[in-house]
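Example record used in the benchmark description.
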Amino acid sequence: MIGRYLARLLLILAIGLLSVPSTAQQTEQTAIPEATADSTLDANSDTSNTKPDNPQRTMLVVVGAAGKSEYGESFLKQTAIWEKAALENSFRLITIKPTVSLDEQSEDGDEVLNSTISNDATTKNRGTDIPAPSESADSGLTESESGRLDSFAERVVIAAAKGIENETPTTDRDRLVETLREVASSDIHELWVVLIGHGTFDGRTAKFNLVGPDFSGAELAGWLEELPSELPVVIINTASASGGMLKNLSRKNRVVVTATKSGAETNVTRFGQFLADSVRDPQADLDKDGSISLLEAFLLAARRTQEFYDSDSRLATEHALIDDNGDGRGTSAAWFTGIRVVGRSRDGTEPDGPRAHQFFIANPAQSETLTAEQQSERSRLELEIESLIRLKPNLPPEEYYRQLEPLLLSLSLLSNPPPSSEPPDQN
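Model output (structure tokens):
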């Protein structure tokens, strides 16, 4: 009986594999012309690549107060990489940056800086040695794009909300609120929010630092409530103390990545640069399927962050977390072997990771042929299969394969539907 199930499953898998493009085909199908210096979203422009009946994926990049010029330069490098990745992959890109230059920020930066690194464990962790982008992961910027970095501090790129005629939001916080309102009313099927900057924690509340009023995790969660509840959302917070926002931001159908495990980790973080590097680094493709998921980029970035501290016998002052099951606890990279969590929670909660492995900056080529509804159904089937695999040790073999077969068959048919049969012409 089990042998019969295995034979049928192998046939189903073979059919599915025949429908998956090779890595070379994926590269050819998803190639996007190089972004130009004028491609970044300007005050009232839209970088989306709209298609009929194809809602947009949107990326909102928010750059916080730098405090010091060396941090500002690091933030701008990270921003450039995220912008390039978004433009290459047909996101609608919106970037909110400080409306004052780095020099002006530096004049008042000591207060922000001191609150950020107040709990340093060693002199080496004072935050004055932010690493350059990883040599093993070139940012891939063209010469013209690299030149843009020199003028980023002078170039103001803000999100302009529709319907505001004579009144412009006066602070970066106002711009963020108005932008999220505009996004909530737009035709969108996936939202990425990337926060690049510093964070603070007063013992009770973690906040992300902007030029002007800051915002807390609870406030950001409230603004996001205007979004459709079924909208897939990714929130990446690379700031210090970002772990203190995790519980507020965690929801079902949402992936939250933080650079720290709690609000108490207030030192300047390195994770953000490593994550920006990893989203386009082939080494992040842990399962060798030709695509880099958010989970894979997170795991590589967390590993490189730890290596940074280990390389000079530093005490690690940041421990990144990923949360995609809505429990607000998060899981560190140390709990993963490959792309799967090792071990189980005491209360039986589904582990983090499977949903994050379904989010991609560069969508697999196969996704281009699926509607939004079909992609949603594929994600559901993949998660059911993942849950069943975790139950395998507790199921009789025959029962395990009996449940697995219809799921694999449905997934295979979704990827490789049978040709439609038209009724014969009666004439």
